[in-house]
Write a structure and sequence with these properties.
The chain has four helices and no strands. It is mainly alpha-helical.
């Protein structure tokens, strides 16, 4: 009987953890989409900030590899678009951002 009561909090904790992970990925996706919209409107500084938010977000590994793959792809694209924004703004770090992207994501 006591084991059942111990199991309930563990199940609930796992559920909340999964919900937090999904919510965080949704927020990250929203930042990414906002960055793309700003990039399309040629608002490079604001777009770059959105892409950097995506890039810098850290997560614990999820139990679903699909979620991890989506997260990795979002971060990869965000890193590329942040470099594009730097290039459009003629920032001095644009070249180093592209070099870092190529180093981190080789073909």
């Amino acid at each position: 009987m006591k084991k059942k009561y111990l199991l309930i909090p563990l199940i609930l904790a796992g559920s909340f953890s999964t919900y937090a992970q999904v919510s965080a990925v949704q927020n990250l996706n929203k930042n990414y989409q906002t960055g793309l919209e700003l990039l399309d409107k040629e608002k490079y500084t604001a777009a770059s900030q959105q892409f950097k938010l995506v890039e810098q977000q850290r997560f614990k590994p999820a139990s679903q590899s699909e979620s991890n793959a989506e997260l990795s792809l979002l971060k990869e694209n965000a890193k590329f678009y942040a470099a594009v924004c730097a290039l459009e703004l003629t920032n001095s770090d644009a070249e180093s951002l592209f070099q870092a992207f190529i180093r981190d994501y080789p073909l």
